[in-house]
Each structure stands twice: as structure tokens, then as C-alpha cells.
Design brief:
The structure is a homodimer.
Chain A lengths: L14 E6 L11 E6 L4 E6 L7 H9 L7 E8 L5 H19 L6 E8 L8 H11 L6 H7 L8 E9 L2 E10 L12 E6 L5 H12 L17 E6 L17 H20 L7 E9 L2 H12 L2 H8 L4 H10 L10 E4 L2 E5 L2 E2 L5 H8 L3 E7 L5 E8 L7
Parallel strand pairs in A: 4-5, 8-9, 10-14
Antiparallel strand pairs in A: 1-2, 2-4, 3-9, 6-7, 7-8, 10-15, 11-12, 11-14, 12-13
Helix pairs in contact in A: 1-2, 2-3, 5-6, 7-9
Chain lengths: 394, 394
Amino acid sequence: MEKLAFPNMKPLAGVKLGAVACGINYKDRHDLFMAELEPGTAIAGVFTRSRTAAAPVLWCRENIAGGRVRAIVANAGNANAFTGRHGMETVRETVARAATLMGCPRKQIFVASTGSIGVPFPAETIPDKLPALKKSTKRDNWLTAAKAIMTTDSVPKGASRTTEIDGAPVTINGFGKGTQMISPDMATTLNFVFTDAKIPATVLQKLLSRIIDRTYNCITVEGDTSTNDSLFLCATGKAKHARITSAADPRLRSFATALEDVLRDIAHAIVRDAAGAKKFVAITVTGAASARAARRIGLSIASSTLVKVGLRAANPWGRMIMAVGKCGERANRDELSMTADGVLVASSGYLLDDFDAKRVTRHLKGTELNLGVDVGIGRGRATVWTTDCSVGYG
Amino acid sequence: MEKLAFPNMKPLAGVKLGAVACGINYKDRHDLFMAELEPGTAIAGVFTRSRTAAAPVLWCRENIAGGRVRAIVANAGNANAFTGRHGMETVRETVARAATLMGCPRKQIFVASTGSIGVPFPAETIPDKLPALKKSTKRDNWLTAAKAIMTTDSVPKGASRTTEIDGAPVTINGFGKGTQMISPDMATTLNFVFTDAKIPATVLQKLLSRIIDRTYNCITVEGDTSTNDSLFLCATGKAKHARITSAADPRLRSFATALEDVLRDIAHAIVRDAAGAKKFVAITVTGAASARAARRIGLSIASSTLVKVGLRAANPWGRMIMAVGKCGERANRDELSMTADGVLVASSGYLLDDFDAKRVTRHLKGTELNLGVDVGIGRGRATVWTTDCSVGYG
């Protein structure tokens, strides 16, 4: 499958990005990043629902409702997860010193970590680097920032869109990282998205929560959810449109579409960088009881090891039926149908014996797969994205 | 890891077993089996909760509450799953002809299939073989029957115990099959268990439902649940004890223990035969909110691909924490502890830096692993059993 190239990011007022080498795990590379936001920037976020979430996630969950941000600090190489109370103390120290540096309340500082779980996190390394980190920030420094958070990633991952609100041009730029432990529950991996739109935090959060269910929450690689999944969405308010006060405002329509495009692009870039995987697989589930049911059925198929092995053998059908059945959502066993590249291969609950097997096999042996499943219950639909087996399967 | 040898099965009055070759998928081997039970035999059963269950499962779910059985017919090589309405018609024809042959109501005939999903099931093959199949049955024909249901199994799987009820000797014999799609939801694979105890169906069902949650529902290989999982428990009533009328009867205590032993033995034999797996892994979860929560946490760890890969690398700890967190059950992040072979490796929410790493690594590199996780919430505990990666991961 094709990996996605890092795009040309449009300039975006109100954001400065910087990175330095702090050496927690890597040598001779940037591994600590800061986003510096102008006063008045709104923030929304989604975080892993893991019950064993990393220390920085606990801080962000607690403070995101404040809705204001002056800086985000993130490191790669150590997840600060399963680091006990010490890990949390380090987060508090980082936040306190960054707040002093920025001259803002602590609750306007957000943090994220990615890397190994269960490795002691050094207490002073990040706090001590903050002054140099702040000095490194500059405008339009996107690629530097995206590279600083890479761990097992083979490529930096980003997306950019320009759109308009009420006639005024608006930009959305985002980047993310991740190749493993990809099975999001509210978000996945580390992701930083910025816009110059003038949208308050409550409206941003509503938009984000809606869109995340159709993007990040529709990807899976091996079905395992990380302890550190975080996505931040910051709006600097520098665009020249009138203030928006409701997520239902029709002037937000094209912005919402552009935001969904950005999130989907980064989510796809993550799937396409899954270590060792060869196929990018889109699975569209229709006929489910609801969109949520369709997504659950899709993810059940997409995260099944046996289905993945079946995809490599170009014969996933029986295993897909198994995965539909096991997830607990309603399905009409005797009305199920399935397609590959639009070709009907199963209908009325059994495999057809006269479908174009040559065309279907050619499609399944390719690297970009489009599979469809209709479960014959209602009108719920969802598309999810996954890979065939990855190197993580040993 | 060691595979379990087929045991010496004790004689058991009231059961005759037989097998013939019907050639649905295999050549020159027995692949169709019948258990013939004497009039008055009680039956209980557990079946996959899959929403796309195979045709024979639908029949059994509908009729198990009748509580009486004269024959069970099972074939290997074709699961009769995803075979649409035709598959169900074949089941009805098999049941009707077997009922005529046995001179009993149809609802006293049970059926099971195992093998490929989505392959058309021949309508007449099994019904036509029934007279020869019935002629083949004889007492104490256990190994023949256990072999007739094998598919990807490398060894036949069985277990036997003798115990007593109210002073009278009682025997329990069982056999099962399965190496793939092992993640039970009420039962797994095909399993046939017989006893000469005199226990009515309702009591049998209560005992079975309780024990299944501590045996079959505690094993997983790759987290995928089959469309055909079935376990039948038949009681011929030939033992010389007084009738039992309640599952709470204290005279059942040693019988319940023996039954749990038989079910656990067969469940373990299935895990130990997982294709390509090298390690048999027992994971004991303690400190959970309830036994059910402990089981869910255990299965979340046991079915995680990344944990399995971590086991092969003798470093599963961070991934185990991830799996505890993702399953949604309550866990105290800062009180978590973990053990390997009884050695404490993590405590108070972080990895210890002074545990006996040499001993732990030696244990993890072995083939019989005992891991412990305490989640620091309550008194719920459960042990689950799994493998490292299997060949199914491709």
C-alpha cells in the first residue's frame, strides 16, 4: 500500500512550533516538541479511555474542559505510562515550569508522551529543557514538529486543508504519529491539529467528538488501545470571520468537512504506516441497526486476526461472517451479503457460486482493498480502515 | 508446551458411540459421529452466542430446553455455517430421519458441525448415512468418536473422572475438538460430555452454566469466536444413587468438582493444540471488582496480539498494562502489581528495578508460563489460559 507524503502546510497565524533533542531515549534527534499558542486560543481534545492511562493523559483529561491553551509539550521515546505516582509528579513539574515561562495559568498547559510503557520517566529532563524549547519555536515549522514525535513511524504524518467560514479563508493543519497499538477509543496515538478559525472551545469540542467517531475511531491495526492516545485541536481565532457560537451554525458546514478531511487523512496515514502490513483495507458496513452498530461490526471484522490472515490468502469470507456474528450487534444471518470492489460475492446468507472469482481474487491480491458487508437489519452504515497482518504479529 | 494425551476412559453405562466416513470433505477417514443415548437420558448444553451461528446451533439452541436426548449426530469438514436457508433444511432432514430411526421425538435429536464456513452443505449425505452410523455405535468407543470430529486438530482430546454422588460411584467422560477460532462465548468448539449420574436436565444446565464460565469461557487463542461452538452434557441416569433435584444439593459437591476438572482438561487440551503456538500461558487476575471483571481483564490480556508478541520477546509488561486498561473494567493504575512464576516484577503501579530478572526471564522463555496481575480494586479473581502467537497470525 502507498504511504502518504507529508503535505505542504499552509501558513497558520497564532501558532509557533519548535523542537529540541532531550535524549530521554533517542540520541541526536529532536524528540521534544512544543506548540506555542497566542493568548485567547481555544482548545478541545479527545483522549484514550484506558483505565491505565499515562500520567500526561490524566492531566489533560482533568484540564481540557478549561478550553484555553498557551502551550502543548510532547516527547517521544518514553510514554510516561505505568510509571506510578512519580510519573504524575514529573507532569506537574513540567506544567508548572511551562506555565511560568508562558506567564499563564497551569491549566492552559497541555502535555503528551509516546514511547515505551513501564520505563521510569526522568524527573528533570523535560522541565530543564523548556527554556531552550520555547526559544526554538517559530511559525510554519510543521515538518520539524511532526518529526519530533515519531517513534516507530517510518514517515512523518500530516494533513492540511483550507476552507472558509462565512466567506473568510480558514486553514486547518494537523500532524500525528503512531504505527502500533492502534485501536482508538476516543482518539489514538498523538495528534495535534491547529486552525486559525474563531471558534470557542465548547463548539470545537462538539465538532471534534462527532468527527472522531467517523475518523480515528474507525481505524484499527491490531485491536490494542494505547495508554497515551491524545488528540488536541487548537483554534487561534486569527481568521477574519464573525465569531461562531453554536456547533449547529450552518456557516460551519464546510469547516466541519475540512476538519473531517484532515483527521481522516492523518488517521489513514497512521494505518498506512503499520509496520509490516502490505494492504490498506476499507470495510464498509451497511444495513446495520445504527451507525454505531455498523462501526462496531466493521471494527470486529477489521481487528480479527483470522480475517487478516484470510485476507492474505484472498479468502476472508467465512471469517468475516464469524466476525460479524461475534460482536453482538444485530445481523440477519439469512440476509447477509458481501462485496469485494463492488462485486457481489455473497447474498441471502450464502456465498454465490457464480461471482466473477477472477476479478475478486485480483482485487484481494492487490494492496488497496474495498470490502462491503450488508447485515440486512436497518440503515446504519460506517466505513472502517485497517491493514492485513502487520509485523507485530510476530 | 506439552500436548495432552487422550486418557483411558472409564466404562459408562447408557452411551454408545459410533463413526463412519461420509466424505463431505475428507477422504478415507471417519468424519461423521453419533452418540446414542438410552431412553431417559437428560441433556444440557451451551452454544456460541454468535449472531451468525451455524444451522445446527440454531436447532440446538431451540431444543435444548426440552432436556431429553436419544442421539447426537456431528460431522467434521464442513461447518454448515453461512449456508443460508438450505443449511437449515439439511439439519431438519437429518433430525427427522434420525428421530424415525431412534423412534423418538425430533426434539430429542441434537446435531453439530465443524469445518469450513461458507461452503455449501450437501443435503442428502448425512441423512443417507444415518442407518450405517447407528449400526456402528457400541459401548466405550471413545477414541473412535473423538477422532471422527477432528479437523485441524493434531491430537484427539478427552478427559475422564470418576467420583461419587451420595456414596455411589459416578463416571464423567468427555471429548472435544478445536485449534482455531478459540474465544468462547458460552462454549467453544465441539464438545461432548457424558455421565451416568442421575441428574435432571435443569440441574445439569445450572451446573454447566456455572462451570463453563470458569473453564471454556476462560480460554482464548486468537480472540475470535466460532459460529459453531457447542458443548453437550448428557446424563444417562444409570448410576445407583438417589435422584438429585437441586443444583444446590451438597451431595453434588464432588460431582461438580469432577465435572469442572473434565471441562478444564478438555479446554486446556484445545489451547495446547493451538497450531504453531509454543507456550501455554496461565494468567491469574486478582483484586478485580468481581470474578466476572477479573475474567474480562484476563481475556483482554490473553487475546492481545501485542501481549503475545511481547511474551515471545520475554517482555510483556507494558503491553499487559495496556490490555488491563483497554478492557473497561475498573483498575487502580497506581496499585497495580504483576508477578511471573510468583516473583513480583511490578508493584504500586510501576516496574520494580530490583526483581530477580534472571529467574523471570528464564520463566518467560520457557513453555509453561504463570503470570499474575493484581488490579488493586476488590476481591474478584479468575484464571484464564492462552498461548503465545500461533501460526494463525500468518
